[in-house]
Amino acid sequence: MHFRRASEPRRETYFLAHTILRSAHLAFAAVIGFALALSAGSAGVSAQDAKRPPLSPGVTACDFPALANDHTREGLNIRAEPRADSAILGRLPIIENIEHEKIAADVHVIGVRNGWFLIEDAGYGDYDLPEKLPPVYAGRGWVSGRLLTTELQISALKAAPEENADDVVEYSWFDAAAILDCKGHWLRIEVPLSTKDRILKPKLPADGPKNTVRGWGQRSCTNQRTTCDFGGMEPPPPSRPELPIDKAKTTCLALPDEQNAACTVEQFGELGVVYVTHLYDATYHYADPRDHALDYRRVVIVEDTGGGRLDELFATPGDPAVQYDEPRIIKIADRTLLLIPAHESGTGNFNREQLFVWREYDWRKADTASWLADLAGRLPAGLKVWKGIYPDYTTMMAETPLWREGDANACPTGGRAKVILGWRADRVVLRSVRVERAGECGEPTP
C-alpha cells in the first residue's frame, strides 16, 4: 500500500499509490514485526488485552488493521460516539515524511456499529518520519468506514464472511474505497469496478452503488512499503549456488531445482551493471538421453558477489517448447528492468518472457500477465486475441491483431488493438486500448 508524493498530481483513485524507496533491512523488519504480532495474537489473550474494557452492547467485535484515508488538511476525525455530530477526540492527517512521501496513520479496528468503526492504537509506524509530528490520539474512538482503506491480499471477495461462501468477484488484490462492515478478521469492502489499473467482472449481482462491487475478505494489509507476510516468520533462505567466475564459460551451476546432470554451457557473457553489481547471463542446454526432441534450455542470471565467484540470482524454467532469446537490461525513467525474452513454439506463438524489476535494492519478479485479462474485457464484443503479445517495455506500448469467430488462425480480420501499459508497483497494468483498422490478415496499415 503506497501514497503519492506531495509534488505528484492527484490521481482519480480511491487509494493513492506511490512507490517508496527503502533499504532491505527495513522491509525485513516490517515482515518480522508483523509475523511476531500474528504469533503473539495466536497465543491467546495477553495481560494488556485482559485489561482493556469490553465492547459496548450492539458493537460487533472485529480485529484487523486499516489506514486513515481522509485527504483533507485536518485529516480523519476520531469521535467519541458512532455518529457524525459526536465530539472529536483527535484527528489523523496524512503527513509527509523526510523524503516528502505521504504516510497515512495505521489504526487497529476492534468493533463496528452501523458503518462506524471503533479503533485504537493509531500511529504512523516507522516510515522515516519528521522529528515534529502532530499529536496522535491512540485511544479508543469512532471513525467512518468511508474514510478508511486497506488492501486485501486475496484472490476473491466473498458473499459472506466464510471461506466456503460464493465468490463475488475474482482478482489478485483489492484496494478498499470504503470499509462497510466487519466480523472478526473478516471485513466487507467496496471497490470500484473499473480503474486505470483494471476492470472487475462480478460473478454475482452487485448490491452497491453503480460501478462498484462489495464483498467480504480477510488478509488486511496496511504496510505502506511492501506486501504483508501472512504466513509467519519464514526460515532463512538456503544458500544460493555459486561458481568460480573462471569456470562459468564451461561449467553449469548446480541449480537446486534441476535434476538433469547432462548440462552444457552454450553461452556466457556479461549482462551489465545494476547499482554496483555486475550481472552475467548464461544459457544452459540440458540433454534428454531418451529423446533429443525433449532437450531444453534454461537462462541463468548470476551476479558477481566478489572474490571471483558468481551466485545465481534466478533461472528460467526448463521446457522443451519454450525458446529463450538474449536477456537485456532496460533502464527507463523510474525503474530498471531485466527482461528474458521467450516464446512458446506453435501456432499461438505465446509470450513466455520473464521480467524482473529492480526496486528497493532487490530484484522482484514482475506480473506481466494480469493485464491480459483486463484487455479481453475491454475489447469490443466478438473480438479476441489468439496469439502472444510482446510489449515494448521502453515505451510501455504493445499491439496485436484481433480475431473474429471463424477467422483462420493465420488471417485475423478484426483489426488491430493498440495498447498503452503502465506500472502499479511490480505489476504491468493496462492503461488504454484502441482498436484500429488493419491491413490484410491483421497486418499494420502503412
Descriptive report:
It is globular, with a radius of gyration of 25 Å. The longest helix has 19 residues. It has three domains: about 200 residues, no CATH class; about 120 residues, no CATH class; about 70 residues, no CATH class. By secondary structure, the chain is mainly beta.
* Structural domain count: 3
Using only C-alpha atoms, the radius of gyration works out to 25 Å
- Proportion in β-strands: 35-45%
Low-confidence stretches: 1-50, 232-237
Shape designation = globular
Structural class label: mainly beta
What would the average pLDDT be, to the nearest integer? 83
Number of strands: 31
The major sheet is characterized as: 5 strands, antiparallel
Give the neighbour order of strands across the main sheet. Answer: 8-7-6-1-9
Distance between the termini: 44 Å
Query: How many helical stretches?
Result: 3
Proportion of helical residues: under 10%
Layout of strands and helices, then pairs:
Layout: H1 24-42, H2 47-51, E1 60-68, E2 76-79, E3 88-92, E4 95-96, E5 102-103, E6 106-113, E7 116-123, E8 141-144, E9 148-149, E10 151-152, E11 156-158, E12 167-170, E13 174-175, E14 178-183, E15 186-192, E16 212-217, E17 220-221, E18 242-244, E19 263-274, E20 277-286, E21 296-304, E22 309-315, E23 322-324, E24 328-331, E25 336-340, E26 342-344, E27 354-359, E28 362-365, H3 370-378, E29 397-401, E30 416-424, E31 427-436
Antiparallel strand pairs: 1-6, 1-9, 2-3, 4-5, 6-7, 7-8, 10-13, 10-17, 11-12, 14-15, 15-16, 18-22, 19-20, 20-21, 21-22, 23-26, 24-25, 25-27, 27-28, 29-30, 30-31
Question: Could you list some keywords that capture this structure?
Answer:
446 residues, 5-stranded antiparallel β-sheet, 3 helices, 31 strands, globular, disordered N terminus
